[in-house]
């Protein structure tokens, strides 16, 4: 029926859609509340703090508010859209391109850049008190 490639792609689509669905629920409080366990335990925002609120704001068309909550929120959401589209293509073509993309090793400069950006965002999150 479904081979391993298709099951992975369908799982990716399902998880991402469930995540966005959660943010669209009327019971999702508002953009002022956090769902971050790290922040709730330590009272310090994590590097990803604000990503849910950023996405919540973006889904409602509030781009400036989205950027305030997390500067990488729009980039993250573009990657999620690309992942769903690629996973859907993989399901129909019975391909594993998304798996190959995810398994591809990063160059050293890419890892360093990623770590520096995440640390800067984390410092910013602490500074603005997210």
Describe this protein's structure.
It is a single chain. This protein has helices spanning 4-24, 37-42, 51-59, 63-69, 73-93, 97-103, 108-128. With 130 residues, the chain is mostly helical. It has one domain. The chain is globular and about 45 Å long. The N and C termini lie far apart (46 Å). The model has no long low-confidence stretch (mean pLDDT 85). This is DUF2752 domain-containing protein. InterPro entries: DUF2752.
Instruction: Give the overall shape.
Output: globular
Strand content: under 5%
Q: Could you give the distance between the termini?
A: 46 Å
Secondary structure: number of strands: 0
Topology, element by element:
Elements: H1 4-24, H2 37-42, H3 51-59, H4 63-69, H5 73-93, H6 97-103, H7 108-128
Helix pairs in contact: 1-5, 3-4, 3-5
Could you give a short description of this structure?
The protein has 130 residues and is mostly helical.
Feature tags:
membrane; DUF2752 domain-containing protein; mainly alpha; 130 residues
């Amino acid at each position: 029926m479904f081979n391993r490639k298709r099951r992975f792609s369908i799982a990716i689509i399902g998880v991402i859609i469930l995540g966005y669905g959660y943010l669209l629920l009327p019971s999702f409080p508002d953009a002022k509340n956090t769902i971050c366990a790290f922040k709730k335990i330590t009272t310090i925002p994590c590097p990803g703090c604000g990503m849910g609120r950023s996405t919540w704001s973006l889904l409602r068309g509030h781009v400036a508010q989205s950027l305030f909550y997390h500067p990488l929120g729009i980039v993250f959401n573009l990657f999620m859209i690309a992942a769903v589209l690629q996973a859907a293509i993989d399901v129909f073509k019975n391909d594993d391109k998304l798996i190959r993309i995810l398994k591809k090793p990063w160059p050293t400069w890419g890892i360093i850049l990623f770590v520096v950006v995440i640390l800067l965002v984390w410092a910013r999150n602490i500074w603005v008190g997210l």
